[in-house]
């Protein structure tokens, strides 16, 4: 099968090289790191953001819908396809930004996620302490030239996968809301106005330790403790394959809110 170098099919660059950690914020423009490529459609756990003013200075590393992102430093070979759910987006230099010109981004992302694509990426990795793939090597990566019909089919499947993912997100949220209401936690005060001190014995010594709980967590624990429940060991078989007997003992004594 004929191949073509990646640079003939897409523009290849990487993310921001300037240290901007001091500008990280809870809101603003999403700033991607290598760890955020753990999901094919970009992970949502522990996101960081930068202000719009900082984003405007990082024009070279702006990320657009349809781009393909590759982990090229440390977490080599992670792949994400960028959809339109983020709006503005940027990232750091551990991420390569591929902007397809003569090929579908969905196909390119699927290829790099495949065993063949992963082997090709890792084949070009360099370094001993911190391995990475440099951009000149990345641009030379051979991409199989398959027919338009095959690429279109792969594109359709990737889009269908994204639609299913979005549906699952909505369903999980609805399920969480139903469970929260059934447990009465939707009526619990979750304000952060105060903290509560509790004295908790710490095994194996009888001495008490002070645990400071935010008021919201204390209210949730108090509500759940007042509900009828069963020890986890009465409802599930605990398999101790990790050898942490003390942790498993505490799990056995825990209370679950699941009914029959």
Walk me through what this model shows:
The structure is a single chain. This protein has three domains: 3-146, DNA methylase specificity domains (Adenine-n6-DNA-methyltransferase TaqI, Chain A, domain 2), CATH 3.90.220; 185-227, no CATH class; 228-260, no CATH class. It is 33% helix and 20% strand. It contains seven helices and 13 strands. The chain has a four-stranded antiparallel beta sheet with strand order 2-8-5-6. The chain has a three-stranded mixed beta sheet with strand order 4-3-7.
Offer a concise description of the structure:
This protein has 260 residues and is an alpha+beta fold. It contains seven helices and 13 strands.
Q: What's the total number of strands?
A: 13
Top-tier CATH class of the largest domain: Alpha Beta
Q: How much helicity do the residues have?
A: 25-40%
Mean pLDDT: 82
Task: Give me the CATH architecture of the largest domain, please.
Answer: Alpha-Beta Complex
Order of helices and strands: EEEEHEEEEHHHEHEEHEHE
Rg over alpha carbons: 24 Å
Shape: globular
- Spell out the CATH superfamily of the largest domain: DNA methylase specificity domains
Which oligomeric form is depicted? single chain
The share of residues in extended strands comes to: 15-25%
In CATH terms, what is the fold-level topology of the largest domain?
A: Adenine-n6-DNA-methyltransferase TaqI, Chain A, domain 2
- Helix/strand/pairing category: alpha+beta
Beginning-to-end CA distance, first to last residue: 57 Å
Low-confidence runs: 254-260
Largest sheet: 4 strands, antiparallel
